[in-house]
Every structure is written in structure tokens, then in C-alpha cells.
Amino acid sequence: MRATSFIQVLTCFFISIIGNHSVLGNDTILYRSIVQQLDHFGDLEAYDSVYYIYDHWIKTDSFNFMSCVEKGRIAHKVGVCYYLDNQEYQAVEKFKKALEFWTNCSEIDQSEVANTRFNIGVSYQYTPDIHLGKTYVNKAIQYLESDESTDMLDLAYKYQGAGAFYAELNDLVQSETYYQNALNLFLQLPEEKYELIYMYNLLMVLHLEFKNYDAAKNDVQKALDLSDQYPELSTSDDLAYIHLNGAIAYLETDMLDQARHHANVGLGFLDETEQPDLYSNGIELLGAICKQEGNYVDSRKYFDVVLQLRFESRRDNFNHLSRAIALENISEWHLAQREWKESLDFINDALRELCFSHKLDSEKNPLLNDQPIIDPLDVVRLLGIKSKIYTELFSNVSDTAYLLNKLSVHNKIDTIIHLNIANYYFESSKIEWYELAEMHYDEAVLTSIKLYDLLNDIQYLDQAQFFSARSKSLILQQHLKETSAWEEILSKEQLRRIKELVQQVASVRSAMNNASEDLDSLLQTYSSAQIELSIFHENLEQENSTFAAQKYLYAYTPSVEELQQKLNKRSIIIDYYLSADELISFWITSTQFYYQKTAFTDTVSNSIQELIDACHDPSNNFSTTQSHQVYQYLLEPGLQKATASISNLIIIPDDLLYGLSFDILVLDQQSNRFLVEEYLASFNYSTSLINFNDSKNEDRSFVGFGTNYSDALLDNVRDKTYLQDLNQLSNFVYAEQEVKEGAKLFDGRVFVNQEASLDNFFTFATEADIIYLSMHGIVDYDDPSKSCILFDDRNEELLLTPLNLQYQNLNTQLVILSSCNSASGKIYNGEGVNGMTRAFLFSGVKAVVSSLWSATEKTSMDLFQNLLLNFKAETSASKALQLAKKKYLSNASPRFQHPYYWANYVLVGNSNAPSANKLQPVYLLVIGLLAAILIFLLARRRKTNQKR
């Protein structure tokens, strides 16, 4: 069920605030006369008269004799009227006309130009071309921030409007940043308490949209506290908004009594005749509450009232969404009543209403062309409901046509997801949006498999694996594709500038993480840095059509056939997909493609988690029986189906499996052999990211960074960073020795102790084939941007964070992180583990060896020295790590064979698995010998013929 939020029933008032404060100084009589006429009819909302007056005067010679300032101000006033008349494109046209009049107009105040730019952006907000408004909004804010004469209240309103603009774009990060800036300014203006209430309403809507219901409830309480404290400032509409949004938050968390209370209180402040839109929201909520309680009779009555109210008015684009939601709720009502045909009819009507600017296909789904979807999340949600209806229809009549229709729906959803992510400039914005949409891949994978089982057509198994690949690390894939293209498209100066701006954003974000005071000032600086980076992106898109096209190119997903062509005979790709209650795995060899499906119960989940937990502490009992059972569950059935002799596993994990070191799985309980003793295992985030290129044969350049840290390590870190809970942080003993031993093997360069600084890292690491870091790793499971590698504490800058690594283009073959927890991080649905390992891959590194749990320093040194020795001998990185682990196990006493000591390190990224079209040295030797023999025999034959 969906309830319409308050932001969707507000008419943005920012233009009307700034549209009527033109300064009349030495203006002409004609100008004053026109302005008075425009203001008069504008106040009466007689907009046709406004347009007539403008169209009349602009054609006269008298108008041409006006100053550039006056012409622009008149065009601006008419633009305001078009905006208030819900004719946004005409508003944009008139605002742009004002800018045209003001071009090279030395008399115009640039703040007016900025205001008009802002108005263009806000006008685009209510059109299918909302993305075109970003440039205007950002440039307006940038100017107003830099202008010392900008009124604080005016800037607060602009932040507020910009936040609402980005909320419509579903950009949580930028919207929340702007809203917080507005809130901070309003807090400094005691006379603006009313705006604080309004701001908490805006924030609660944003948090509701991104399903952060606890934050929304907190916003509700803050708004209510303020309205209690200043009752004279709270209008009935304000209180209605607060309570209705509160009702949504409580409804979504199944607190139905509280939801009903807030809905009824909110309705008590409203009049059905005067506020039909807002009143319908309250009725809609009561219907949803009744439906949740199983009271379908009353819920339908409420929903019918909502539908009637919303179809009585057709004023603007908001009403398209509100009517779509009303139709959606009735569709879900019929679905709950098992009335599937009726449910399908209503959801199709909802799609038609919401996608009013698109043509529909034969199944009444939107045709996705170059025209963007206005409300992509809402369209994805409606299509998701349609998918459920097709499931029920198929279950009822077993007609595979319904499953085929369902699959078509999920291909639409996939396209919308990929297109929409390209519209965000910041990774965090992309991730937050993707988390809301990614859930639909479950149904896509399961539907494809169902069709494969029914029709025995391999194309549907291909489709299932395709959806699995599409659901993993999409943002990482797009970023790597985009930055790779930039190297070819952009100039050196442009590349330098974009890296500089990214680092500026990262630097301010780091300062915000570290600061305990003056956060408001830093937040505004952070916002300004984001704006500057956004504007740079926007300018590049406008100036370079190739650059603009790149961001809309899908991240390429290879087919199973393409993967098979690159695999050698001893390799297998295992792509795991964890749905709500099933674990699905796709198995790809050079000649086979099959899948496994098994129930994923709480018992199985707990068993895997217990096995993972046992590895994190050597005092924990490690059960070989449990390990073998997990092996039997995850790997044994699939490996038994492989017809070739498999030795190389390329594993694509999902969800819980990201934390499992597959090397610890016990193959048989008789010998207790670990998987690492027989199989080479490497990991990747998606089949789309597998690189099959062999290791380079030329000498590899090496740079190492290691520090034993100072005796004042804890105090230095606490003083200089945001890191406080550091009781387990200790000095190193072997770090310097580690990196020096590695450098000897490759004749490389090392930076130890105080020289192990961030400056040296960014100066010397970018050209290395191997980067070796022996340092503390810190993981933040709540905020991935705070995960870090801790450089030497005697330097002012200590932390290498994911933000620092963005756009570095390291192009490094292998990074070795001899650091605790460096393979861990926050797990996002679909995108995977977001931490330091992913950050290095994001920067262009081909493979990362990192740790799933706390590392022991001595074991790490032994493992990595052997890994580097093996890698020096031209062994692939994954093979080098396997051999190092096998050597450790062969020499370790029983006590130190506990997985804690050796299994924490995993290789993520390019496994350097030899591809099918590359011949190994042993085969080359055999072929060489055969060729030599053949040449010898031919030579003998020639001699014999010559004798004859």
C-alpha cells in the first residue's frame, strides 16, 4: 500500500517569494505601468490577462526602448505567473528570456540572475525533464553562497527549495545536505521558528521515501515539540502535515494504533472542500490501516472516496501521481481479495496515469525511450505489483504466458534502474536509490528459473543468471566503465580538475567526520564542494556529447556463452544469489551451464554464521563437522555435476556469504582436508567484473608502505581523527620488515614509519604494479565512508578512506592489504560489501588481497612473503595466495592450523585465471617439441627424396 506524502501536495512557493521583489528605481513610466498591470492580474490569478499584456507589449517599439534590466524583469514576472498557472515549460521559456535580456547587461544585479536561474531549475522540477534543472539550481546556489550580500533568509529558502528539488530526483544525499543547510540557517534566525516546523516536515517526507522510519518518527516528534512550544506559529495545515506523515511512519512499522491516532488527528485539522488533496491523504491512510488489519470492507470504502476526490481535480503533475497511488491501492485491495483480473486493470490504469508522457506497449507497460520517467521509484513499485498479479494469475491457471509477461515487466524494471542510476553524480546517492529498487531482482531471477524448469529452454536460465549479474555491484561496474571512457574522452586538464574536485569533497567530508564542533560551517563547505563538482559534471555533459552519452551506457553484462569462451577447462564460475528463502547458484564451466537451488532456512543461515564467527577468534572451537556440512550445502552438489576436472573456483558471493572464507570448508571428514588444499578460490563482486587476462610477464614495479606507529599511537589518532573507540589498536612489530622484504624481491621502493604518509602514497603508488600496505585497517559497518587504512600517526593526515580513492585511476595489478578487516564493510543489497577492498577496486585496481577478520602480524608476514615469492615466479595472484596458505598449513602445528591464523586473507577481483584462448607454458613446450620432431622428419624425407 502506498500513501501520498505531504511534499507531493505542496505547490512550491519559492518562485512567488522571489518573483515580486524587483527593485523599481530609475525605471520608465511604461515599465511601471506594465508592472502594475501584471501585478494586478497576477494577484487575481487572471493569468490569461497577464499573458495577453506581455504578448502585446513585447511586440511594440516602446518595449524595445526599455532598458535590458526592465525587459528581463517583466519576462521574469510573466514566468512566475506561468509557473503558478502550472505551465512549467512556458515558465522556463520566460525565465530563459529574462536571462537572455540580461546577457551583457551591466546594470543587472547578479543576484537577480541567480534567482532566475534557480526559478528555471524549480520549474523543471515538475516536468519530465527535471534533470535539466540541476545545472540551474546548482549554479544559483553557488553564486548566492559566494555573494557576501546574500540575505541569510533568502539563502535558507534557496537551500530549502534545492532540497525539495533533489528529493523529487530521489537523491537522498544531496537533498538531505541542502535541507540540513536550510535547517541550520533557520536555527540562526529566531524569528523563523515556523520554517523549522516546515523543515522537519520536509525531512520526514525524505526519510519516509527512503524507508528510514525511525528518523521520520524523530522528525515528527521534533515538529510536534516545536508546534507545542510556539502554538501561534503552527497553522492547521502544518499540524495536518505532521500528523499524516507520522501516520505513514507508524503504518509502515506496523504500529497501527499510533498510525490511526495520527491519521485521525491530522484529518481533524482539514476541511474536505477547502483541502481535498490533503484530506484525501488522511482518508487514504485510514483505508490502508483497515486493510492492514484485515478489514477489507471499510478499507475499500475509504479508497473509493480517495479515488473520487482525486479524479475531481486535474491541476498538475502531482495529481498524476496522487491518482496513480489511489488506483494502486485499489489494485492491491483486489489482489488481496484474489480478484486478479480486476487488480490488473487497476494497476494498468495506475501506470497509464503515472506514465502519462510515455506510450504504452501491448501489455500496457511504459515504452522506455530517451524520455526520462518522472517518478522512477513509483513506476518500479507499480511494475512490482503487476509482477505479483501475474504470479497469482499463473498460479491460478498455470498459463506460462503470465510468467512471460512477468519476465517482460522485470526487464522494464531493470532498464529503469540502470537508466536512473546514471543521473546521480555521487556514489552514496546511487547506492541509497539502488537499495530501494534492487529488491525486484528476486522475482526476476525466480521467474526466469521457473520458466526454464517448465519449458526446458536454456535462454531462461541465461536470463536468470543475467538478472543475478545485474543485481550485483552495478554502481561499481558503471563507475569503472565511465572512468575508463573518460581517459579517452577528456583532456588531461579536465581529468586533473575532476580528480581535484573529488578530493576536495573527500577532504571536507573527512573534516566533518573528525570535527566535534563547527559542523554547521563544514556542512555548508561540503555542500559547496558538492555543488562545484556537480556543475563541473554538468558543464562537461553540455560541452561534450560523447561524455554525456557515456553515463547512459549500461554496464556491460556478458552472456554465459561469452564467459564460457574465456574460461579454461579447469575453471568454474559459481554465482550465488540469495533470495528471501532460497539459495540459488549458477555454475559455469567452459562446456557446461547449470544451476542449483536449495532452501535457505534459519538453520542453514545460523550454521554458516557460526562457522564465520568461529574463525574470528582462535579460542573459539572450529567444528570440522559443521565446516563439512557447509561445504556439502554450498559446493559439493554443484562440483559433482562438473564433467571436467575442476581446480579453480571463481566465486561470486551474496549477502551472508561475503563474510565466509571458502578456503576453510572441509572436503571430507576422514582427512579433514581444507578446500584450499585442493582448490584455488578467488572472489569477485559480479560476473561482469571478471577479468580473464593472464598475469603480465614483464618485471613488476613494487611500492610498500608500513609503519610500526609511535608510542603515542592512541592519543595521536584520537586527537587527529574521528576515531575514538580504539582500545584494540596497538603498535606493530613486523610492519617495517614486511615491506622491506617485499621490496627486495621486486627491487621496489618502501616508505616506512613516518615516511608512510598519505602524501607519499598518492605520489608514488599510482604507477606501481604491486602496492603493499602493512598498516591498521578499521571498518565502519554503519558508514562505509569512515572505513580506512591508518597511515603513520606522526603525520597530520592519517586516514586513507574510500573517498580518498575515488577517481585515482591507480590501474594497479595487485594491492595487498596486510590490515585487519580490510575485506569487511557495510553490506548493501545488490552492491555488496562497501569498504576498503571495494574502494581500491573502485579506483581501478585489478585485484585486492585483504582480510575478513583481525589478522595476526607474524602470520601475515609469513603468508605474504610466500605470496610475493610465488607471484615473483609469474604465478597468478590467486595461485600465489593458495600456495602460500598450503605452505603455511604444511608447516603449522595443530594449534596454529585454526582458520583464524591463515584463512582471513582472500583475493577479490581479477583471479588471473588463464583464459581458454591462452596456452600455458607446458602446452607450449609440448607443441614446440612436436614442431621440432615434425621439422626433423620433414628434413629427413627431403634428404631421402634428394638421394633418389
Give a structural overview.
The protein is an alpha/beta fold and 948 residues long. It contains 39 helices and 18 strands. The strands form 5 sheets. A 6-stranded mixed beta sheet has the order 9-8-10-14-17-18, sandwiched between helices. Strands 3-2-1-4-7 form a 5-stranded mixed beta sheet. The radius of gyration is 32 Å and the shape is globular. The chain starts with 13 loop residues before the first helix and ends with a helix.
Task: Pick out its properties.
single chain, 948 residues, alpha/beta, six-stranded mixed β-sheet, five-stranded mixed β-sheet, 18 strands, disordered C terminus
DSSP strand (E) fraction? 5-15%
Work out the number of β strands. 18
- Shape designation: globular
Class from helix and strand fractions = alpha/beta
Question: Which stretches of 5+ consecutive residues score pLDDT under 50?
Answer: 5-26, 913-948
* Strands ordered across the widest β-sheet: 9-8-10-14-17-18
First and last CA, distance: 96 Å
Helix content: 55-70%
Based on CA atoms alone, the radius of gyration comes out at: 32 Å
Report the sheet with the most strands, covering strand number, pairing sense and barrel closure. 6 strands, mixed
Average per-residue pLDDT, rounded, comes to 85
Please count the helical segments. Answer: 39
Summarize the structure.
The protein is an alpha/beta fold and 948 residues long. The chain is built from 39 helices and 18 strands.
